[in-house]
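Subject: Sanity check before I submit

Could someone independently write out the structure tokens for this chain? I want to compare against mine line by line before I put it in a report. The sequence has 122 residues.
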Amino acid sequence: QVQLVESGGGLVQPGGSLRLSCAASGSIFSTYAMGWYRQAPGKQRELVATISSSGYTNYADSVKGRFTISRDNAKNAVYLQMNNLKPEDTAVYYCNVGRRFYRDSVDPYNNWGQGTQVTVSS
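---
Independent answer below. Compare away.
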């Protein structure tokens, strides 16, 4: 129903920056929100940030002040600018689109792309 392709991950030193991109396609309504999750080895998927169709944003406490989510509605794309990266940010990052974003799932589709690996290490 929805297809998601993440890109932009890589290896970066602590304090560095990365910009993640996500291209979405399929049954995307104009009112749908978009967001980013991440999952570290051995841990549950974690909601990082969301942005509504009107531009309202929400962030996990662990990334507030460091990450910025944005979207391009014409391109059905969502971005995550990550600054001042920390080793604990290391994870596979996934994007998604939908009506409701939960702790580790999304309504109505809850399907996932391959994600993009972010590794923060000195």
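---
OP: Matches mine. For the report I'm noting this point. The two ends are 40 Å apart (CA to CA).
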